[in-house]
Amino acid sequence: MAIYYQQVTGDSGSGAILGDFKGESYGAGPSFLWMPKSGGGKFSVTGTWLHDLHATDRLEGDYVVVTLAWQFGATK
Hints:
The structure is a single chain. By secondary structure, the protein is an all-beta fold. 0% of the residues lie in helices and 49% in strands. It has one domain. Strand 4 (43-56) and strand 5 form a beta hairpin. It is elongated.
């Protein structure tokens, strides 16, 4: 998985005392989906880790997201 971010309008207002600071960054990392058989297809776990490879006028770091999903009710 990959991500690209580009700020298209500059910062403004009273807090932008150092300029418009148009940020840009890109990164990449793995992603997974797990659906255990014991859950009968009603339960899943997804995870993503994105590591910034480059950043300009932004904080550089890692993004980690884990999602748990459970289907309620009857299936047809």
